[in-house]
Write a structure and sequence with these properties.
It is a single chain. This protein has 14 helices and 8 strands. The chain has 381 residues and is of the alpha+beta class. It has an 8-stranded antiparallel beta sheet with strand order 4-3-2-1-5-6-7-8, sandwiched between helices. The longest helix has 38 residues.
């Protein structure tokens, strides 16, 4: 049985972990609950896109690429997003000549003909995702550490509130503000416990796994990490070369990874002998979402193939993290479930802060009402 002293220390850890990370946890959890509707939000923010026709057989990728090159001559087409169950259109990210570094234009194209519709007016859904994943400008490991903090809050909360079943339905309305908020805080935490564990664990994994992987490779082969990589041949020195059909390259990718359903096609150094096309997406009938095939676009030979089903246990686990975290594998009903359950951590961060502030005010009032000569004792308590 946990001693009272240990419980007090855990309560202190729980309180301060919540106070220190409360604001960031609220931002990440609130934006995460909303961002499950990222694609729907983008369509809502761009009503003209929602009215575009949906084609059962989308236009060939070659037609899409040709339309982009005709509309934006001299521009670099970096990524093409294929139509899916929500978005009826193709989207492409284009870097126009003379544009500032890192500046890209998101362009919509009809799925039936591949014709360019024009630049997308609003990317509200993408901005919300950037807020959730990177806090706009921070590295992803910051959000990963917030996932760890959330796991600490869950673990300490479970130990502190040991009478879980009794507290499931304990809501003492009409009592003091702190007592009502405390009951709501405990009840919401218990009802959403399984979901909170899932979200915290997957968020921590996606944010921190790349960091630990880099550290492992550095420690495992420090000599290799210290050797500078040879500089890639400058683009001006790469000779022009005819490109393979983008649709033929996609067929090659699907042969390399059976069941690949590409969501994105990335193009690098297109039109040169070193050109590459990368196909990234889901696996038909499987939850993993990190399948990828990189192909030399001049020769049509695959350069790198990643199939999470055959790449080992940890690779498969990594491929499951994003679908489990964002709930984008079960249709609209699952998204609404993720939304409502995802709002509970945001509420917990607010209610926990309010409880702490109310308790602090109570202690200050008690210290102010203490008899003369006992102020120090009251403050210490």
């Amino acid at each position: 049985m946990t001693s009272q002293r240990t419980l007090q220390r855990l309560f202190t850890l729980h309180s301060w972990a919540g106070i220190v990370t409360g604001l960031l946890l609220f931002i990440v959890c609130f934006s995460g609950a909303v961002v499950v509707f990222k694609n729907e939000i983008d369509l809502w923010a761009n009503p003209s896109l929602a009215r575009l026709p949906r084609s059962d057989k989308p236009a060939p990728l070659d037609a899409v690429l040709a339309q982009l090159h005709a509309r934006y001559p001299g521009a670099t087409v970096e990524t093409i997003a294929l139509p899916d169950a929500i978005n009826p259109s193709y989207f492409a990210f284009v870097r126009e000549r003379g544009a500032p570094a890192g500046t890209r234009t998101k362009v919509a194209l009809r799925s039936d003909t591949g014709a360019v519709v024009g630049p997308v007016d609003s990317q509200l859904g993408q901005y919300l995702r950037m807020l959730h994943v990177f806090l706009f400008f921070g590295p992803r490991w910051i959000v990963g550490f917030l996932g760890v903090a959330m796991l600490v809050l869950i673990a300490t909360g479970i130990v502190i509130h040991r009478k879980i079943l009794a507290e499931l339905f304990t809501l003492r309305w009409g009592r003091s503000f702190r007592l009502v908020m405390s009951d709501l805080h405990k009840s919401a935490g218990i009802w959403g416990l399984g979901f909170h564990l899932l979200i915290a664990a997957t968020g921590a994994w996606m944010g921190l796994a790349p960091l630990f992987e880099q550290g492992y490779h550095y420690l495992a082969s420090p000599a290799a990490m210290a050797v500078p990589k040879p500089a890639r041949q400058a683009e001006g020195g790469e000779r022009a070369a005819p490109m393979q059909s983008l649709d033929a390259l996609y067929a090659t990718a699907q042969r390399a990874v059976p069941g690949l359903e590409a969501r994105y096609v990335s193009l690098r150094r297109w039109g040169t002998s070193a050109a590459e096309a990368g196909f990234t997406g889901n696996l038909q009938g499987h939850l993993a979402s990190t399948a990828r095939v990189d192909i030399n676009a001049a020769t049509g030979v695959p350069k790198k193939v990643h199939d999470p089903r055959t790449a080992g246990f940890w690779s498969l686990v990594n491929g499951l993290m994003e679908p489990l975290h964002f709930g984008d594998f079960g249709g609209l009903a699952l998204k609404w479930l993720y939304f409502f359950l995802g709002m509970t951590p945001a509420f917990l961060s607010i209610s926990g802060t309010l409880i702490w502030l109310d308790a602090r005010q109570q202690r200050l009032r008690e210290a102010g009402a203490a008899p003369p000569g006992t102020e120090g004792v009251a403050a210490a308590g």
